[in-house]
Amino acid sequence: MTPQNTAPSAAPGEVLLQMSGIVKEFPGVRALGGVDLDVRAGEVHCLLGQNGAGKSTLIKVLAAAYQPDEGTITWNGQEVSFGSPLQAINAGVATIYQELDLVPDLSVAENVFLGHEMSRGGFSQRARANKVTRELLTRLGHPEISPSRAVGDLSPANQQIVSMARALSHDTKLLILDEPSAVLDQEGVKNLFRVIRGLTAEGVAIVYISHRLEEIREIGDRITVLKDGSTVATGLAVADTPTSRLIELMTGRAIEYVFPPRPEFDPARNDVVLEVRDLALEGVFSGVDMTVHAGEIVGLTGLVGAGRSEILETLYGARRASNGTVTVDGKPLRRGSVTNAVKAGVGLCPEERKSQGLLLDQAVYTNITISSMNRFARLGFLDRGEERARAEQLTTSLDVRPTGVVRAVGTLSGGNQQKVVLARWLLRECRVLLLDEPTRGVDVGARTEIYQLIRTLADSGVAVVVVSSEVEEVLGLSDRVLVVREGRVVHESAATEIDESQVLDLVMEGSAA
């Protein structure tokens, strides 16, 4: 049945949501293989699992961004089928994703009521919207945020509060928070927890997704753990479950990624290509030292928000370092200059390839050649034939599917889009390749192909740095591993000298109990 928000709310402690046997498949991958989850009114239910475990897919099914292939959802005692995100919202289910979907140029009040604007007779009721927004912000403990202020002028913490106010404007009964602390400092996290406790005291249920087990201990009531798209434990009481048990539940995979053979690497026999000394970005990371040799793959792992991506962006010149030096083949790079880094042979495949790495409406060949346009310049004009021919050679060698370099890159799958980004830097003949979450959103088959391509690049003498949230990926692909926690490198070793449990223990501050 289609749900309506007319039934009385569940009393605190009663089951508000029950998901049973949820299955979701995509081409080439079974993202959810029968997940069970129940959430009680007034509780904070923590959802744990490594990247790729199925957490994001599950909450998108609940929010009706995806429709399940199998399974049932019971909401407030009734079996329901949310046909659209709007139906889920109207029923009282609100989701705040890690990447906030706010409009920076609109005011706080306009964002709060975006999509369900207050109006009468076709005219906007701005004063009423501001009044209700102010009441919602006061309820969340932030009366100082002005409803008329542009959202883009707010801090990340206050932007998150605005997202919560928007959720509460729909009479929310269940609020899903996806890695809410990733952009917050310590004081921001404390304030977030104050807000959460206030909401649960009113009977609102919270689904809290985080990799930070110390936060789970502080704010959570019960825990569900996912692994490889299945529920491996559910309803665990936070107070009764040691961290070591949670780490044990999260590690190990049913799907084995096939990593290419790792040759024995001898640093003494290979030149240093990338050297980083005392690198810092104020307020984000500091004291980073790293050397990467020709033919070596170095992996950076750590929690979301630990500073991993920012390190790569600073090496690439997209962020200006506040301290330290970066040299490529012995020559120092100019701080904050992407042009200087690219000329020195540095390439970056960013985490958000769709928004940061690709021109989605442009042709495949344009996306491949955009960093090497001077190669195709003839007397001030581009040789389009040569440009397309070279792109075709690369897409054929990388087996980009479907074929055809004139099609828009946005029509390709995630794995094939990632191959296009890699092809760009193959054409550029990089000395240093920086890869941020290279297999995010990529199915298992394409992962194996990308792993092989990365290893082939290293074998050709490229120095590779890989950032990944998936510990198994870092350990399986890298020659050497650096663990990053709260902006500092806390461990460095050969990948063969550390295992998943040890990495998880390090990134969670050695808190295993």
Give the number of domains. Answer: 4
- Overall pLDDT score: 86
Sketch the major β-sheet: 6 strands, mixed
Q: In angstroms, what separates the terminal alpha carbons? A: 45 Å
Number of strands: 24
Q: Provide a count of the helices.
A: 17
How is this structure best described in words?
The chain folds into four domains: 1-92 and 172-181 and 192-252, P-loop containing nucleotide triphosphate hydrolases (Rossmann fold, 3-Layer(aba) Sandwich), CATH 3.40.50.300; 101-170, no CATH class; 260-345 and 431-443 and 458-513, P-loop containing nucleotide triphosphate hydrolases (Rossmann fold); 353-429, no CATH class. The protein is built from 17 helices and 24 strands. Strands 6-9-10-3-11-12 form a six-stranded mixed sheet, sandwiched between helices. A six-stranded mixed sheet has the order 18-21-22-15-23-24, with helices on both faces. Strand 4 and strand 5 form a beta hairpin. It is globular and about 65 Å long.
